[in-house]
């Protein structure tokens, strides 16, 4: 199990709310996200992931464009998609965009996380049939892996979900030859087994329930990797979760609740989620719930507690949703980098 821990943040963009409760502009949401990534770099955060959503409240629809901009404005932070919905995008374009960001960054800071898409809005938007969900993902993942592992610019691939590629150049190539490529999963055992068999690192999105219950999936992932003969440095686990860090636990709870309420109202409308219940929020925001909401001490202790089960090497939080005031997001990033990270390092060193 990995002993060091990267601490990070991720976002789908968060369109701000006006004082009267109406929705602000999606452009401002993107501008705020860019500012947050640059801030995370200056504060010393290890990682920032940009997810792909296509809703008015979560407007980060183009991780590649966002990361290319951020790559030119940052120096040290690792940047990744969290995740790229490859089922409904073209793996050639995803790779080209991320390799472009890699070149701008100087190399070695850009990662791709490939997801199926828990949000099905991309299927009608890009003209795909939801009934082809599994086939689209498996073939497009195969194509993305083929492009990434190609030994030259020229790639050959045959499949059924798009036209074949016959010895065609896919450029630019990443500075270091290939990009780190992760598999994103929300908790399907098949996804854990697939990532292990393919020898790819895995990122678990844990947004409900007790996170330590995911340890059986991490075990399945490592067993599948070992059975397929994969034992190298690519066999690693990261965890993405909802959370917010504030100077005190009560401030963190009070700051995130209105945003959580807004998010659940919207998701109820889009996807039939139940009406938001504050008791459910408070239960998830206490150990062993799924939300990492608290002061730096508590959040650090809970990350290290989960590490005992998952052995993960990166833990990153989504805080900006539902119109969270931007200054709360920036403060949470600062506290993650300057307060939570050193505490996690100290606690892991004692284990």
In one word, what is the shape? globular
**Uncertain runs with pLDDT below 50, 5 residues or more?**
none
- Strand tally is 12
Number of helices: 11
Q: How much is the average pLDDT?
A: 96
Could you characterize the architecture of this molecule?
By secondary structure, this protein is α/β, with parallel strands linked by helices. It has helices spanning 26-43, 63-73, 91-105, 122-126, 133-149, 189-198, 215-227, 249-271, 278-284, 296-310, 326-350; strands spanning 6-11, 47-50, 78-81, 84-85, 110-115, 154-157, 165-169, 181-185, 202-206, 237-245, 292-294, 314-318. The radius of gyration is 19 Å and the shape is globular. The mean pLDDT is 96.
Give the secondary structure arrangement, pairings included:
Blueprint lengths: L5 E6 L14 H18 L3 E4 L12 H11 L4 E4 L2 E2 L5 H15 L4 E6 L6 H5 L6 H17 L4 E4 L7 E5 L11 E5 L3 H10 L3 E5 L8 H13 L9 E9 L3 H23 L6 H7 L7 E3 L1 H15 L3 E5 L7 H25 L1
Parallel strand pairs: 1-2, 1-12, 2-3, 3-5, 4-5, 5-8, 8-9, 9-10, 10-11, 10-12
Antiparallel strand pairs: 6-7
């Amino acid at each position: 199990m990995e002993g060091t821990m990267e601490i990070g943040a991720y976002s789908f963009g968060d369109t701000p709310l006006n004082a009267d409760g109406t929705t602000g502009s999606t452009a401002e949401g993107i501008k705020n996200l860019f500012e947050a990534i640059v801030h995370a770099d200056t504060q010393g955060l290890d990682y920032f992931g940009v997810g792909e959503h296509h809703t008015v409240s979560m407007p980060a629809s183009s991780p590649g464009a966002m990361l290319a901009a951020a790559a030119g404005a940052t120096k040290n932070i690792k940047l990744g998609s969290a995740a790229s919905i490859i089922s409904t995008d073209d793996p050639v374009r995803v790779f080209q965009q991320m390799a472009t960001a890699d070149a701008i960054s100087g190399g070695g800071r850009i990662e791709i996380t490939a997801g199926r898409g828990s949000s099905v809005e991309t299927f009608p938007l890009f003209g795909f049939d939801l009934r082809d969900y599994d086939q689209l993902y498996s073939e497009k993942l195969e194509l993305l892996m083929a492009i990434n592992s190609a030994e030259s610019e020229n790639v050959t691939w045959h499949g059924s979900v798009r036209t074949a590629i016959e010895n065609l150049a896919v450029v630019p190539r990443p500075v270091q030859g290939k990009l780190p490529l992760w598999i994103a999963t929300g908790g399907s055992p098949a996804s854990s087994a697939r990532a292990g068999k393919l020898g790819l690192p895995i990122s678990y999105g844990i947004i409900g329930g007790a996170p330590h219950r995911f340890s059986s999936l991490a075990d399945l992932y490592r067993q599948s990797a070992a059975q397929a003969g994969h034992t190298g440095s690519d066999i690693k686990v990261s965890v993405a979760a909802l959370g917010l860090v504030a100077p005190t636990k009560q401030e963190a709870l009070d700051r995130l609740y209105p945003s959580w309420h807004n998010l659940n109202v919207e998701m109820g409308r889009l996807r039939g989620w139940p009406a938001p219940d504050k008791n459910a929020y408070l239960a998830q925001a206490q150990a062993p719930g799924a939300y990492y909401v608290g002061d730096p001490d508590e959040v650090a202790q809970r990350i290290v507690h989960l590490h005992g089960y998952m052995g993960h090497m990166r833990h990153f939080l989504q805080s900006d949703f539902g119109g969270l005031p931007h200054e709360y997001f920036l403060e949470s990033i600062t506290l993650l980098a300057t307060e939570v990270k050193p505490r996690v390092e100290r606690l892991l060193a004692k284990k």
